[in-house]
Design a protein that fits this description.
The strands form two sheets. The protein has an eight-stranded mixed beta sheet with strand order 6-3-8-2-9-1-11-10, with helices on both faces. A three-stranded mixed beta sheet has the order 5-4-7. The protein has one domain (3-257): Protocatechuate 4,5-dioxygenase, Chain B (3-Layer(aba) Sandwich), CATH 3.40.830. Helices cover 34% and strands 23% of the residues. α3 (98-110) crosses α5. The two termini are 34 Å apart. The protein contains nine helices and eleven strands. It is globular and about 45 Å long. It has helices spanning 14-21, 31-45, 98-110, 125-134, 161-176, 206-218, 220-224, 228-235, 243-251, and strands at residues 2-10, 51-56, 71-74, 78-81, 94-95, 116-118, 122-123, 145-151, 182-189, 257-267, 270-278. The protein is α/β, with parallel strands linked by helices. It binds 3,4-dihydroxybenzoic acid and fe (iii) ion. Residues 12, 59, 126, 190, 238, 241 line the site of fe (iii) ion. Fe (iii) ion binds at residues 12, 59, 126, 190, 238, 241.
């Protein structure tokens, strides 16, 4: 049977990927952010999954705005890296896990989550930057296959936080019922507080972010109780991406252990964070 071993929550800011792609991670601006990632990266390198289920959002790069599914699962054999206007990032294309995808689609539908399926998809920074946060030097191929789980966070009305937590629980049940022995990590991506346009452009709310970072482990219900308007009010128009962390949290069990977290302002216009959680029985501390 498949097993979920760890969960990673991470920002997906494009310039974090660009900093890696252009060799700038040791620059004064970027070094504190990447130093904060280092212990988690080392731990994850020692716990390579077979498949990463990556909850992310397309930023109108691949799906466009003509059709915006609330939740969707990618079912392809592989996913090319999207060209977001300045050429695709110089990272490997993404290997899919179509058998697991098909299983998840069926189980989620039977569990009353009427998701869409996406059979062809180019993956944008929302997915490739978290993969680079996980593994900065993949070489010719990423260390694991990927099942993309798309969530609408860009067009009103986004799914509620409560629904995201419930969806995550159903996703966790669906993953664990996959009959093949498969070691799965779950990524929740986006956030933390940021707003890219409008009168409040540049908004950062550290108090909210730190409260969210703490609650996500033992009290996700407090986060699920917020409305979408609360997320926009507290975390900014793009800060609502944080509802994707709740999907990851729902897929994990109650007894998770916080392996590492880090919070840094600014990365571009955002508050960037990473939080890594291990399931019970998955050992290893981060280097101190
Ligand atoms: C930025 C952040 C995002 O989440 C995103 O999708 C695009 C850009 C930014 O801060 O530059
Ligand atoms: Fe984004």
């Amino acid at each position: 049977m498949a097993d979920i071993t760890w969960g990673l929550a991470t920002s997906h800011v494009p310039s974090i990927g660009a900093a890696m792609d252009h060799g700038k991670t040791a620059d004064d601006y970027w070094k504190p952010l990447f130093d904060g990632y280092a212990p988690a990266r080392e731990w994850m390198a020692g716990h390579t999954p077979d498949v990463a289920v990556v909850i992310y959002n397309d930023h109108a790069n691949s799906l466009g705005l003509d059709m915006v599914p609330t939740f969707a699962v990618g079912t392809a054999e592989s996913y090319d890296v999207a060209d977001e206007g300045w050429g695709p990032r110089p990272v490997p294309s993404v290997q899919g896990a179509p058998e697991l995808s098909e299983h998840l689609v069926r189980e989620l539908l039977d569990d009353h989550f009427d998701i869409a399926t996406v059979h062809r998809l180019d993956v944008d920074h929302g997915l490739t930057v978290p993969l680079s946060v996980y593994n900065p030097e993949p070489g010719d191929s990423w260390p694991c296959a990927v099942v993309p789980v798309l969530t609408n966070v860009i067009q009103y009305p986004q799914p509620t936080a409560a629904r995201c937590l419930e969806f995550g629980r159903a996703l966790g049940r669906a993953i664990r019922s996959f009959p093949q022995d498969t070691n799965v990590a779950v990524f929740g991506t986006g956030g933390m507080s940021h707003q890219l346009a409008g009168a409040r452009a540049g908004l950062i709310n550290e108090e909210f972010d730190r409260w969210f970072l703490e609650k996500i482990q033992h009290d996700p219900a407090a986060l699920a109780a917020l409305t979408r308007e609360d997320y926009v009010r507290h975390a900014g128009t793009e800060g609502i991406e944080l509802i994707m962390w709740l999907i990851m949290r729902g897929a994990l069990s109650d007894g998770i252990r916080r392996v590492h977290d880090t919070y840094h302002v600014p990365a571009s216009n955002t508050a960037a964070a990473l939080a890594l959680f291990a399931e019970p029985g998955v050992d290893g501390e981060v280097p101190s």
